Amino acid sequence: MAYVIIAICFGISGGIVGRIKGSSFMLWFLISAAVPVFGLIAALAYRFDNQELRRQCPSCGRVTKIYDAVCTRCGAELDFPDVAVAPETFERTPARS
Ligand SMILES: [Zn+2]
Q1: What HEC string does the chain produce?
Q2: How far apart are the CA of 20 and the centre of ligand 1, in A?
């Protein structure tokens, strides 16, 4: 019974960490509850997906993550770009006036 409580506690903390990092709460809740300690570590190590710099594919114009080597839409190989697109979180923050 104690294990169930521990698993749920880890599940919730893992879920919250995942949610903060722009991923799914349920996904990380399930991962952290299934493998308590490792799930939480994975959630903490998971990269801040919505804070990554982005870049635009020169072939199809799709905006992808800057670390993608191949375009997820058209499959074009991507060199590291000269110009990066601002992260999603940057765009969401309104400019102060
Ligand atoms: Zn493309």
Answers
A1: CHHHHHHHHHHHHHHHHHHHCCCCHHHHHHHHHHCHHHHHHHHHHCCCHHHCCEEECCCCCCEEECCCCECCCCCCECCCCCCCECCHHHHHCCCCC
A2: 29
Q: How far is the CA of 77 from the centre of ligand 1 (A)?
A: 8
Domain layout of the chain by residue ranges: 2-46, 50-97
Centroid of ligand 1 to alpha carbon of 28 (angstroms) = 30
How buried is 11 (Cβ within 10 angstroms: 0-12 exposed, 13-18 middle, 19+ buried)? Answer: buried
Quote the ligand 1 centre to 40 CA distance (angstroms).
34
At 39-80, the pLDDT tens digits run: 888 888 877 666 677 888 888 988 888 778 888 889 988 877
Q: Measure 87 CA to ligand 1 centroid, in angstroms.
A: 18
Enter the pTM of the model: 0.50
